[in-house]
């Protein structure tokens, strides 16, 4: 009898199975209610006393070996199923859902429009393909005016009257044609200039231009509005206006913001002066108002315009304007936390 049990032990040890059913059949065969083990246990009372001890030990050994075999085979089966991807690794973290991010140009554009909408400016938009009137002539830039050269223009070859807008001042002309003062509007949008592409300039970029027209609008209003803007956007409260020239404004100025000279970067980006140029501005030329059917004797106004890329480069310390258009995820992913 003991030899028979030992034979079973050897058999259990040799046993192998690849499916759940095989393992279950094996378990029932040995460990089930009517299984081999229980048969031996039932036999116990018939075993002669002097053999009882050895018999007990061998039967218990068979029980342990069978139980361990079943556990081992079950684990093995799960492992191979996992490897085959039946369950996958259940302890792995879930597939991460990637959160997108806004483009830095959109972030800065939204910030600028928000700042101006808080003081009553609305947002106006217009076509990227413009006619000569809205981009040039109405803005006091008649044909052959030398200042047209300031803005290297892409013309549409088949029609010299149609071009890609070189600034969003064209939207302001459209807005004045369609609306009566008081006017407070900003025009964000994409503009085009035939310039060589480098780290500093691109042939496609974005602008926000602003226009304010009402009775008795003065240069002081312009200055105060821009000061408010620079405080809001940069947290800087020192600006200076340098005399400049634009055909559509008179007088005209370039706005510099005092950036500071605290860090090495400050030195580098301000070329050691502490000042940074951020936009152009001026009082709307009476000719422009007249071109848009607004009486310059009754109304006056100011306008300003800035490049979004330039401001984004300052805010985020971006060294190369081309980064904005390359759609490199390593660059874009850095703006995830911003709105
Ligand atoms: N339109 C000018 C440009 O594109 C900017 C500007 C707008 C300057 C309004 C003065 C007033 O450079």
From TrEMBL:
UniProt keywords, alphabetically: Aminoacyl-tRNA synthetase, ATP-binding, Cytoplasm, Ligase, Magnesium, Metal-binding, Nucleotide-binding, Protein biosynthesis
Cofactor field: Mg(2+)
Protein's UniProt name: Phenylalanine--tRNA ligase alpha subunit
Gene Ontology terms, MF aspect: ATP binding; magnesium ion binding; phenylalanine-tRNA ligase activity; tRNA binding
Keyword Electron transport: no
Gene Ontology terms: biological process: phenylalanyl-tRNA aminoacylation
Quaternary context: Tetramer of two alpha and two beta subunits.
Cofactor comment: Binds 2 magnesium ions per tetramer.
EC number of this enzyme: 6.1.1.20
CDD domains: PheRS_alpha_core (cd00496)
Species of the source: Christiangramia crocea
Residues reported to bind Mg(2+): 250
Principal EC category: ligase
Single GO cellular component term: cytoplasm
UniProt-annotated location(s): Cytoplasm
Aminoacyl-transfer RNA synthetases class-II family profile domain ranges (all copies): 108-326
Catalyzed chemical reaction(s): tRNA(Phe) + L-phenylalanine + ATP = L-phenylalanyl-tRNA(Phe) + AMP + diphosphate + H(+)
Family membership noted in the UniProt record: Belongs to the class-II aminoacyl-tRNA synthetase family. Phe-tRNA synthetase alpha subunit type 1 subfamily.
């Amino acid at each position: 009898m003991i030899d028979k049990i030992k034979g079973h032990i050897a058999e259990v040890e040799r046993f192998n199975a690849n499916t759940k059913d095989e393992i279950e059949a094996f378990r029932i065969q040995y460990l089930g209610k009517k299984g081999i083990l229980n048969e031996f246990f039932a036999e116990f009372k018939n075993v002669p006393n002097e053999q009882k001890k050895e018999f007990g030990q061998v039967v218990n050994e068979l029980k342990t070996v069978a139980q361990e075999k079943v556990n081992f085979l079950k684990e093995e089966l799960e492992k191979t199923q996992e490897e085959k991807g039946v369950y996958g690794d259940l302890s792995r973290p879930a597939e991460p859902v990637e959160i997108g991010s806004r483009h830095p140009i959109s972030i800065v554009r939204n910030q600028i429009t928000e700042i101006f909408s808080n003081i009553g400016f609305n947002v106006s938009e217009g076509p990227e393909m413009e006619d000569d009137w809205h981009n040039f002539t109405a803005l006091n830039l008649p044909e052959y005016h030398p200042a047209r050269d300031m803005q290297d223009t892409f013309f549409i070859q088949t029609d010299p009257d149609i071009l890609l807008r070189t600034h969003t001042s064209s939207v302001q002309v459209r807005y004045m044609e369609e609306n009566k003062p008081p006017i407070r509007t900003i025009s964000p949008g994409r503009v085009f200039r035939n310039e060589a592409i480098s780290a500093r300039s691109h042939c496609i970029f974005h602008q926000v231009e602003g226009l304010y027209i009402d009775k008795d609008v003065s240069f002081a209003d312009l200055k105060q509005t821009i000061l408010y803007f620079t405080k809001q956007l940069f947290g800087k409260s020192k600006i200076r206006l340098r005399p400049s020239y634009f055909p559509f404004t008179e007088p005209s100025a370039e706005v510099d913001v005092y950036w500071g000279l605290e860090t090495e970067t400050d030195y580098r980006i301000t070329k050691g002066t502490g000042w940074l140029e951020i936009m152009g501005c001026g009082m709307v030329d009476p000719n422009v108002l007249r071109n848009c059917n607004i009486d310059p004797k009754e109304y006056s106004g100011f306008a300003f315009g800035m490049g979004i890329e330039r401001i984004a480069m300052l805010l985020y310390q971006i060294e190369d304007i081309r980064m904005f258009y390359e759609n490199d995820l390593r660059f874009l992913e850095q703006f995830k936390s911003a709105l």
